[in-house]
Amino acid sequence: MTEDLSPLEAPAQVAADLAALAAIAPPDRREGTAAAVLSEDGAPAARLWPALAQALKKGLAQRAGEAPPKGAPGFGDVPGDAALWALHGRRIQRAPGPVRAAICAGLRIRALLGLGDLGADAIPPEACMTVPPEALRADLWKLARSMAPGQRAQVIAYAAHGATGFRQEPEAAGLELILSAGRTDVSDGWDSIDYTAAIPARTGWAHCVALLLLRALDAAAEGPDRASVAFIAAERLWKTRRAALDDLSDARRDTLLAGFRGVFEAHLAPVEAAEQAAPDEALPWSGLGG
Questions:
Q1: Which of these ranges, 92-101, 105-114, 222-231, has the smallest mean pLDDT?
Q2: Is the pLDDT confidence value at 49 over 90?
Q3: R_g (Cα) of the chain, nearest Å
Q4: Helix, strand or coil, per DSSP, at residue 85
Q5: Which of 19, 148, 210, 271 has its CA 20 to 30 A from that of 109?
Q6: Rounded mean pLDDT of 15-37?
């Protein structure tokens, strides 16, 4: 969340994902074609997914209380949000993760912003997650726990030499407890993790970023105050350190990219997410292979 962005800019990441999905098939510009596809029970997935994505992307330009723009849900012969979900909801929930998450997030963010005729509760929050939360957490914990003993000591040493009022023994014990117990609610250890995550050249950087993403994922279910703080920290990392991901191995880069995406998608769940701004530059869409 940033003070210089209005709530209407919240769908930026969702719109970017929908645009990527819409681009997998060239649009059929014949009058009424998209509406016909969206109204067809059993429409081929190769036509349905891009048509849904295009309609929802157009729908994100709508403002509460205004008529839907051309091509958006509820315009002319295009079914409204509730009708789209009733007709295609089961297929959407069985779609590949990136497709399911993009479409469900489009429907949900429209509902959170008071657009359309579908209640936000109709879309399960987990349906907006590209990777199931438990699988995502497992991958991030695997990366975090791959931090070797010498790397853990170095993470503590960085903060010991640079942080004011640093308490080395509690921090070292806290880091070990976080990693061994798989808990992000431990009070100590985070000063060292934050300090290392700030500089990509530091030993243990990827591991510490994974831990911060895990903390943000867990915070999404713990109320708006903690969720907002954790989201801001993850968003700041993405804004300022995303280029450093390209210097990692493919496996580590992909795990952290999935983590950043998971944090954004998890924070769509609360109503407060309508006030959360997407990152300045959109997270890359993972395509149909996810």
A1: 222-231
A2: yes
A3: 21
A4: helix
A5: 210
A6: 79
Give buried/exposed letters for 227-246 (b at 16+ CB in 10 A, else e).
bbebbebbbebbeebbebbe
Quick check: 22 and 53 in contact, CB under 8 A?
yes
- Contact in structure between 159 and 195 (CB atoms under 8 Å): yes
Helices (H), the chain: 12-22, 33-39, 45-59, 81-94, 97-112, 133-145, 149-162, 168-181, 190-197, 205-219, 224-241, 250-266
Positive or negative, the CA dihedral 165, 170, 174, 180 is positive
Q: What's the pLDDT tens digit per position in 62-102?
A: 888 889 999 999 999 999 999 999 999 999 999 999 999 99
Residue 7's pLDDT is: 33
Asked if 278 and 13 count as a contact pair (C-beta separation under 8 A), the reply is yes
pLDDT of residue 271 exceeding 60:
no
